Amino acid sequence: MVGDSLTVVTEIRASVEDVWRCLTVGRSAWWPEMRFEAVVGSPLVETWVEDGRQGVASGSVTHCVEPHVLGFRWSEDGWDGPLDVEIELVGHGDSTSVRLTESGFSGVGTPDSLQSEHEAGWRYHLARLKSASEARAVDADVS
């Protein structure tokens, strides 16, 4: 294993507020399989189908400072422990840096490949968040 955590960073050409809206209430545009409310204690569930079988990850929102930080803890059946995710949004004028950190890989008791699989998954999801947020920002400019 490379380490206990992974970090993925992306820059989005949209305001912190637009990115936050897409991350939370507009999530169905870029991650329809994930459900939660941006409120500490809210249940969080992601479902997907892989190799003909449905997968489920579940947990709860652990940290929420609108519009800058969203944190949650989640796990899947077969893991020995949960993973913690923190998504931080930092505005820079008309753009936003998104820094996602997921930690706890040493405690899940799964193959080392889980960390690289999650890193690839987060890159995929953050690219979709970027597209949705930037489209929202363009739509707002046109209105």
From TrEMBL:
Location of the Activator of Hsp90 ATPase homologue 1/2-like C-terminal domain: 14-132
Please state the span of the N-terminal signal peptide per the UniProt entry: none
Q: Which domain of life is it from?
A: Bacteria
Question: Which Pfam families does the record associate with it?
Answer: AHSA1
Q: Which family does it belong to?
A: Belongs to the AHA1 family.
Question: What protein name applies here?
Answer: SRPBCC domain-containing protein
The species is: Microbacterium gawkjiense
